[in-house]
Structures are given as structure tokens and as C-alpha cells.
Amino acid sequence: MKRLFTTLAAMTLAACSLAQAAELKVMTSGGFTAAYKVLGPQFAAQHGDTLQTILGPSMGKAPEAIPNRLARGEQADVVIMVGYALDDLIKQGKVVPDSRVELADSRIGLVVKAGEPKPDISSVDALKQALLNARSVGYSDSASGVYVQDQLFKRLGIEAQLKPKAKMIERIPVAGEVAKGEPQVGLQQVSELLPIAGVSYVGKIPEPVQSVTRFAAGIPVGAPHPQEAKALLDYLASPQAQSVVTGTGLDSVPH
């Protein structure tokens, strides 16, 4: 009889736990996605919640972009995106201001197709020459690509030379296109380059012309599960998450 009561008590606790579990809807942009794909399941296993993940850029005109999704009235419990794009959503009243959590810093790197010679990009002059020598250059439609298009080429003094052969690649990973052979070289945040097969990672572009993108996360106004969402954000920013964060090509930020 005692064993029966113990079994019933365990079943009751399990049922209560399942009843309390939430399905969190998470919208995340590319730069933090590799880390999230590891950390998200770890959080779910520890907390009993499930995660529904929706991928989309932090900005831009694509309907998949996180701001455009929220503007259409799509609900989410958590948004993970470029910090300044998140700040815009906070100013618009779309994200709870004091829910903002700093996650990681992301730097821009360069890839070529696997098997092709790796160009020297160890200095600003070397990077400039590598881009001039490239048959074609691709960059993303998110934060890193906006910087490459609007600032990097100008700072290197090669904007006019690159205009005919440089292209912004929308929605899909730049490295995936490089793996197919065009463009010949690709520029994007390191954490978005490393997971893609068929390319060789050359390295980060030099610090004097580097652009560091801060990734952050927040809870949209009207989120169905704000308490569980806060627990997820605390976990993603926790000390125990940092080995995963740095292992995916990102840099930790102080908290």
C-alpha cells in the first residue's frame, strides 16, 4: 500500500509539473542561433518547458524579420537579436524595457569555398588586397552586412572597385552560397559562418576595421509566459552558458 501511495504521489507531482510547463515561442536572429541551438535544449531539459523557435533577421524588409513579425501582431515570449535593433523595439513599446539582457558580442569573419586557397587578411592592407583580388564578394542583409556595405568598403577605400562584384545576400547564410562557388569570398558574423559545411574559415577581419555587434534579448509586451521567458534569458546569459557561447565564435560580455 505504501508503494502505491508513493507511486500515486510521484504521478501527481509529474502531472503538476507538466501542467506548469510552458511552450515558449522564441524568435532569434542568426548571430546567436548556433549558441541558442545548444543552450535552448539544455534549458528545456532542466525546466520542463518546450521551445518553439522561429528564425529571422534582426532588421530589413524581409517578412521573416523579427520587427516585421511583431508589427504584424505575431506573439513571442522571447526575442534574441542585434542590440540596437532590440533598443528600437523597446522605444516603439514592443519589448518590455527592463527585460533586456546582454548575451554576447559578435565579430565579422571571412570564408572561402573549401579547398580554395585562403587569402591573407592579417592586416588592413592585406584584407583590402584580398577583396580587390576576389572574383566576387558576398555579405549578409543583417547588421554585419549593413556595416560592410555602408562603412567597411569606404574605410578601405575600395567602394567603387567592389560595387560591380559585391552583393548583399538576403535571408540565407552567406557561407552557404560561398560553398556553392559564388560569391568567391563571404563576409558575415563568425558565429554564422562556422556551422556551414563546404567552406574554409579564414579568420576575423582586422580589429582596426572590425565591427562588433552586441546581441541581446528581451520579452515582448504581452508575452504569454513572461516568467518562464525571464528564466530562459537568465540562463542564456549565465556563467555556465559561456563555454557554449565562446565555442560558437562569439565573445562573452560582462554582467
TrEMBL record:
GO terms for biological process: molybdate ion transport. The keyword Signal applies. Residues 1-21 form the signal peptide. The keyword Signal applies. Pfam families: SBP_bac_11. GO terms for molecular function: molybdate ion binding. Keywords: Signal. This is Substrate-binding domain-containing protein. It comes from Pseudomonas eucalypticola.
